[in-house]
Every structure is written in C-alpha cells, then in structure tokens.
Design goal:
By secondary structure, the protein is of the alpha+beta class. Helix content is 41%, strand content 21%. The chain has a single domain, classed as Gyrase A, domain 2 (2-Layer Sandwich), CATH 3.30.1360.40. It has a 4-stranded antiparallel beta sheet.
C-alpha cells in the first residue's frame, strides 16, 4: 500500500494578493456573516442567505481552493444560511486564524456601523427678530 505525501502548506498568492483575498473575506463577512465557529482544524462561517451571497461564497471558495490546495473547502446551504467550511492539516492553523480574524473584522465593522447614532440635523437657527431702537 502506497501512502500519498501530504500536500505542503503553501499558497500561490503573493503577499499583496493574499491581503486582497483576506479583504474579500472581510467584506463578505461585513455584508452577511451571521456566525463563525472554529473547532480544531475546521473553521465554519455562516452567512445570511441574501441574494448573491451563495454565489459570492462559492466563488471565494473556488478561488481559495486553487491557491491553497492544502485546504478543503465546502459550501452548502442550510435553511436560510450559506455555510462555508474550511479545514486543513494541523499546520494550517495560521491560515484558518487569518480567515477567522478577517471575518471577525468584517462582522465588527458591520456591528459598529449599525450601532452608531444616526446623524442629527444641525440645530436650527432661531428666527431673527427685529429690534426697534429705543426712543428716549
């Protein structure tokens, strides 16, 4: 019985491209992330099933599978959520951590934006009054 060699933990993206990819994760999370769970070497991200979200998550997963062959990515729909599962060998922990951190940054940005007070109108200027000169 032959044993296949493990796939090395290597990404084909440049540092700039990897930063852009994590920016995509952050933006997608800001738009639709509902939950994130990490157990061991598996990260699960749940997104609201709004129009276009399943396509966006599937596209991201497909492109990530191309550059990071050591990861197993799966997209499924559960009820009204789109679920992205990302898993890998034990050495893939830092990659999963980066994904999770970017997703949480996006969720935090959304939560911060939604908790800001709405802008209020500038106080109105009191109506001007004419002052009659005093007569002596």
């Amino acid at each position: 019985m032959t044993r296949s060699a493990p796939i090395p933990i290597a990404c084909t993206l440049t540092a700039e491209q990897a930063g852009d990819r994590l920016g995509e994760v952050r933006a997608l999370a800001e738009a639709a992330l509902t939950a994130l769970r990490r157990e061991g070497t598996t990260l699960e991200l749940r997104f609201a099933g709004a129009p276009g979200v399943e396509d966006a998550v599937s596209d991201l997963a497909g492109r990530e599978a191309e550059c990071c062959a050591f990861l197993d990515l799966a997209v499924r729909v559960e009820g009204d959520e789109v679920v992205l599962s990302v898993s890998g060998p034990p050495d893939a922990g830092p990659v999963l951590d980066a994904f999770a951190a970017s997703a949480l940054e996006g969720q935090d940005a959304r939560d911060t934006a939604s908790s800001r007070p709405s802008p209020t109108a500038a106080p109105s200027t009191p109506p001007s009054r004419s002052v009659s000169p005093k007569r002596s």
